[in-house]
Hints:
By secondary structure, the chain is α/β, with parallel strands linked by helices. The protein folds into two domains: about 5-150 and about 285-335, Quinone Oxidoreductase, Chain A, domain 1, CATH 3.90.180; about 150-280, Rossmann fold. Helix content is about 25%, strand content about 25%. The chain contains ten helices and 17 strands. The chain has helices at about 40-50, 100, 150-160, 180-190, 200-210, 220-225, 240-245, 270-275, 285-300, 315-320, and strands spanning about 5-10, 15-20, 30-40, 65-70, 85, 90, 110-115, 125-130, 135, 170, 190-195, 210-215, 230-235, 250-255, 280, 305-310, 330-335. The strands form four sheets. Strands 3, 4, 5, 8, 9, 16 and 17 form a seven-stranded mixed β-sheet that branches. Strands 12-11-10-13-14-15 form a six-stranded parallel β-sheet. The model has no long low-confidence stretch (mean pLDDT about 95).
Amino acid sequence: MAQIDAWVATGVGQSLVRQKLDVGPLGAEEVEIQVESCGLCHSDFSMLRNDWGLSEFPLVPGHEVIGRVSALGPAAKGLKVGQRVGLGWTAASCLHCRQCLSGDQHLCGEAVPTIVGHRGGFASHVRAQWPWVLPLPETLNFADAGPLLCGGITVFNPLAMFAKPTSHVGIVGIGGLGHMGVKFAKAYGCEVTAFTSSESKFDEARGFGAHHVVSSRDSEAIKKLAGKFDLLIVTVNVPLDWNTLIASLAPNGRIHVLGAVPEPIPVAIIPMIFGQKSLSGSPTGSPVAMEDMLEFAARHNIAPQTEHMPMSQINEAFKRLEAGKARYRIVLDADF
């Protein structure tokens, strides 16, 4: 298909307008996906505002795609037309650098994000290199699965890397990322503590699987948790009482940051050294890590809590996200 329908932002902060775009011939290693739905991620909003200085306009956001393969390039492997698939943050990588050859394709220096200099999933069709187009498990909840392809893998990856079923895990921030983190950590067997600044989310956090809930604004309550956590996953991008959180780590504990915190993080080094503690971060994940996450989600019946809107209401959806009213992820259903 040389022409697609897409929702396009023509400049920073502009409302999206529906346009027809000429996408040219399909590349040899490309897969074309007919979009059924696409999750709305806060990263889409950041790109719309050019918060990170990466945005290129005209911009077609959307990187949590669920759809069916509609066409295959002659060198595309392992997929067939009509197959239901997903696409996340990354649309291509070089496949020959050290990171790609060692299985860390998401760390490739030439990786192409789906919405940076590339047309994203708020469209009738989207294209990507074949390794990044993921077959979906048959038992997965397809309607709500889109946010797993960015937010889901983002919180699953540190659990897979650093947690054990016996770990005490804290999830800081119960929003679009954090609520999925709680679900994954509970299913993994961890003892889970949810940190949220909103008391209105306490009961919901317990419903997602948290064994304990603590106010992230209550430093005194956090101080009582000193030495408890093997892993703290921070999903928010706001200032926190970092040194009190570090004190809550057990020896060999780790704070893992997923939220793009704009300010430098002040860290007391001595407690880090004497407790042999770590501070780390990560982006999304490799294709294999994403497949593992999808299989885990299907096996444990894990799905994001979503609200659905037609894609034609995309500007209203962005406003709802900006206002912090999404509970907890918005999925836009294609209605071209």
